[in-house]
Design brief:
InterPro entries: Bact_HTH_transcr_reg, Chorismate_lyase_/UTRA_dom_sf, Tscrpt_reg_HTH_GntR, UTRA, WH-like_DNA-bd_sf, WH_DNA-bd_sf. The protein has eight helices and ten strands. By secondary structure, the chain is of the alpha+beta class. The strands form three sheets. It has a six-stranded antiparallel sheet with strand order 4-5-6-9-8-7.
Length: 244
């Protein structure tokens, strides 16, 4: 969405910043000066400059992170709504460096939080399964937080895999066929540990994808993929059919 033209100082700053980004004066990855420095440079209050930067972030022009400050956004990654994609390939397609970091791995029965977060029913959660959590990185910045459970009755080989080296989703795609998949997609505001791991402020918009795959009536894996909202978007293409 384009920034509307305005005669106000606030609007003129928005136009100038967005123009700098669009014409390449500020390329992707460019680190903007600190908010206080920009406010002083343009003769406005810090609150006004914060509103400018917040608007730019909501429009997808910049990314604001606690650790690295405000940087010009890379082109957004795109995923097909109904496809099961390899996240490493998504990052590589953007011309960025990809890295996977395993945060936890635990063989256990599920609990109420697992059922809520991953969509497991009570019967599915009662047996020991393999619970994994890790971060996908793009150019050393968090790209996606993955929380996953694997049904080890259906995929017993998963217990012997070193998921510090093998990315769980990629390993499953190449070794475990599935006959049915379901995606549930929604926008959420990140909080707590999720915000910390993604290096986002509490309340930042994120895209949550809940994915479940099955072989016939038996579930294989359930995963929660959490993406910073300004860095990701979903696409869908449909062929028109007469009478459809």
């Amino acid at each position: 969405m384009a920034i509307e033209k305005s005669d106000t100082l606030h609007g003129r700053i928005l136009e100038e910043f967005s123009s700098n980004i669009v014409d390449g004066t500020w390329p992707p990855g460019y680190l903007l000066p600190k908010e206080t420095e920009l406010a002083e440079q343009y003769g406005v209050s810090r609150m006004t400059m914060n509103k400018v930067l917040t608007r730019l972030a909501s429009e997808g022009f910049v990314i604001r992170r606690k650790r690295s400050g405000t940087v010009v956004a890379q082109p957004r990654a795109e995923s097909a709504v109904f496809a099961i994609n390899n996240i490493g390939e998504e990052v590589a397609a953007l011309g960025r460096r990809y890295k996977w970091s395993l945060l936890s791995s635990d063989s256990r029965a599920g609990n109420a939080q697992d059922r809520r977060l991953l969509g497991l029913n009570e019967d599915e959660a009662k047996d020991n399964s393999l619970f994994l959590q890790g971060l996908h990185f793009s150019n050393d910045e968090p790209f996606c937080l993955e929380t996953r459970v694997i049904n080890t009755k259906m995929v017993p080989d998963a217990l012997g895999v070193d998921f510090e080296k093998d990315v769980p989703g990629s390993w499953l795609l190449t070794t475990m066929p599935w006959t049915k998949a379901r995606h549930h997609v929604r926008a959420i505001n990140v909080s707590g540990r999720d915000a910390t791991l993604l290096e986002l402020p509490v309340g930042a918009a994120c895209l949550e994808v809940l994915r479940r795959t099955q072989i016939d009536a038996h579930w294989v894996t359930c995963a929660r993929l959490l993406y910073p909202g300004e860095a990701h978007q979903l696409i869908a293409e449909f062929d028109g059919k007469i009478g459809g």
